[in-house]
Amino acid sequence: MPSEYRIGEEKLESVLGPLEAHVMETIWEMRRPVSVREVYEKLRRERKIAYTTVMSTMDTLFKKGLLNRKITSGRGGLLYVYWPRFSKEEVERSVVKHVIDSLLRNFGNSVTSYLMEIAASDKEKIKAFRKLFESIEKEKKDK
To answer: How high is the pLDDT of residue 137?
Structure first.
């Protein structure tokens, strides 16, 4: 999972490079194991990009643990097919957990009071927090 958070960036680009984020989004949208060629064909309709750039980006995402891959045979011989190791929601949750854990470790009370301020500013958020706390309490009791 990504470990560095860039506060000035948006969404997945805050933890991945812009092209890595775009490739991951593309693969999640395709919803099946895909070849580099398939991702390349989709991306080149949107921007000028080299096949080798897509190939190395997908290899990097595999090495970072975000993609799985296997060798299969295709028209030109053997090739890799890739699929996400985690859903988009799992990656986002992991990023949020990593960032909040770091903030709590470094700025504990300030983070807690700020989160409570946010929750208290909206009745729907209060309900959501209450529900979350109740489910956590129930889990603790069940153990």
So the answer is: 84
Q: What pLDDT score was predicted for residue 65? A: 94
CA distance 59 to 65: 10
Identify which of 20, 29, 19, 27 has the alpha carbon closest to the alpha carbon of residue 1: 20
Could you count the other beta carbons within 10 Å of the beta carbon of residue 30? Answer: 15
| Distant-in-sequence, close-in-space partners of 21: CB < 8 Å, separation ≥ 6 | 11, 12, 13
From CA 90, how far away is CA 112, in angstroms rounded? 23
Residues 6+ positions from 126 with CB-CB distance below 8 Å? 119, 120
Contact 57, 20 (CB under 8 A): yes
Is the separation of the CB atoms in 67 and 61 below 8 Å?
A: yes
Q: For the segment 88-113, what is each residue's pLDDT rounded down to a tens digit?
A: 999 999 888 888 888 889 998 898 88
Positive or negative, the CA dihedral 91, 66, 30, 70 is negative
Q: What is the model's pTM?
A: 0.76
| Contact in structure between 43 and 23 (CB atoms under 8 Å) | yes
